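Re: weekly structure request thread

Next one in the queue (318 aa):
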Amino acid sequence: MKIFITGINGFVGSYLAEHLISSSPDQIYGLIRKNARLDNIARIKHKINLFKGDILNYKMIASAIKSSRPQWIFHLAAKVSPRYVQEASEEMLETNIIGTLHLLKAAQNYAPKAKVLIASSAAIYGDTPPSSLPIKETCPVKPIDAYGSGKASGEIISQQYFRTFGLKIIIARTFNVLAPAKAHTFIEAGILPQIKSIKEGGKPIIRVGDINTYRDFLDVRDVVKAYIALLKRGQPGEIYNVCSNKMVGMKEILNFLLQKTNLKNKVKIIRDPKLVRPIDIRKSLGNNRKIIYHTNWRPKISIRQTLSELLENENLSF
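Done, posted below.
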């Protein structure tokens, strides 16, 4: 089978490609931007047929789909803001909305029988009230940031292509993702560098934003298995939450990291106003009954295992 992945060099895309390559003899095609870094796929790039170009260039993406004629398409390419932002940049909206349109248009023209997974986000739900938790796929879409708005728009376009052209589109609303390596979340970018500095003799201080928030986390390896399960057994035209149905506090994660690095009760935690997001989601918890019912997928890897492996990979465990 031929499989096409946009954003294949991203951290989720690279894990997906690695899993597909290790588990089956499929032909893997990937779309990356020109001059993009290939660190995440360095070990497997010789096994991938890469197309270089911008998803905003329709002729380019159309040529790639026409050349590969895939049976499965995973649309993971997206522009993500490192922090919640109220005002959307044109680049973000163009990539997340027009880029999705280009991909769907190319699929409709050159791979109309392909099954297409659109990687959306729990950000489309916004700051859901506690009474509506855990969040079902039927919950109102009320994004509070530009990223969520862009993803919601991409979903609407995808649903229109399903209804109008009959494309076999499945939407995956993915909640927060952690990985043992290759990710750039708040842990890798914010917490781990400070822990490393302390272990190397720096001041025993860790600066944080608001850690009185709660999230639904999944290990990236469970996420890619969910995506594959959705294209195998999910229903075209349907929307699925990809989540754990468990909520973990940021404070709990920080305490676990400090305990595993032998720094518990040895550092001072300082709330830095500069790290506090101007807008934020207090609690995010997804209901995963639908994806379990339709695909029999279930998350297998605990957040503690993910964090432990991450620390081991960074040589920070004791």
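The chain has a mean pLDDT of 93. The radius of gyration is 20 Å.
Next request, please.
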